[in-house]
Write a structure and sequence with these properties.
The protein has 326 residues and is of the alpha/beta class. It is built from 13 helices and 10 strands. Bound molecules: S-adenosylmethionine. It holds the Pfam family Methyltransf_2.
Amino acid sequence: MELKPNIYYKTILQYREAELLFEALKLDIFSYLDEPTTLEEFLKSTNYDKENTKYFLSALLSCGYIEKNNLTYCNTKCSKLYLSKNSSKYIGKAILFREKLGSISNIGDKVKDNSLGQNDKLDFSELAEIVHDEMYVTGRVDDFNREIKQLFSDKYRNYKVLDLGGGSGVLSIEFIRNFPNSTACVFETSEVACISKKIIEKNDMQDKIFVLEGDFNVDAIGDGYDLIIASGIFNFVNMDITEFICKLSDALVLNGHLLIIGSFFENEEYHKEHILNWLKGYINGMKPAPKKSEIEQSMRKANLSLEKRIKVGLFAGELRRKDGEI
Ligand SMILES: C[S@@+](CC[C@H](N)C(=O)[O-])C[C@H]1O[C@@H](n2cnc3c(N)ncnc32)[C@H](O)[C@@H]1O
């Protein structure tokens, strides 16, 4: 069969489509198109340039982000729900942040010579703020709530929860919403802790959710927990993985649960979605998460048996239970 280079041209087109979406979000185009709107009405609201706006809307139309009926432009149902600032499910800001977070433009310099340029640190404070709404919109919160309701049956019991590297604290907030007599600790670095506190206070839960500042690799994390959440943190564990998992197990009560959310692989052939999103992180010094087999072995040593594998929004997760000593 004759080989053709078409896929590369397709990639350029996809890249343009992505660029178009980012520019449209920056221009806030979708917030003006919740209802069928003529070009003249759009220009009256935005004061944008007539000719260029016409081309830009044509491009959005060609990609299926908006629709056109006679002389009016309008969001698709999906764009109205997620890309218009008038919607409670708006995630435009999160999309723009994620683009910046994982952007690999000019990363080639560091591939050629790792000593070139500064390490681009991941901005976890901004991530904690941005991820808040996204967690509700992408189904993470609904999936989490469904799982905890299956794990914990007594709505009025005082369960104790630890959210390690909890960022926004949303999962702790949701736990307390479901089990109002419970208490939770969000364990975070000092940089992010102030954001966690701000979000917890905004939800008026500061008397139920406490923020512990520290480094989970070296500091004590407390004990007596019925649930420990370890979501997206395994790339930041610097200590021996078995020691870390035993530290989590020691902090749980007997039959307590460990919820892990993250991607683990058997070797360095990462899945496309993972490596493309985290390439910038790895190239800037983030260490790979432990291998699946290492996690499995450490869990056995720590008496944490697999209860089930779950899906939490866009991510994979698993629930473990702390068994008694054999
Ligand atoms: C990828 S984010 C995950 C945030 C949140 N758990 C989630 O799933 O959305 C990793 C979080 O771990 C925190 N973190 C990283 N290293 C840490 C450490 N050594 N001690 C405490 N927190 C840490 C970061 O500040 C960040 O908020």
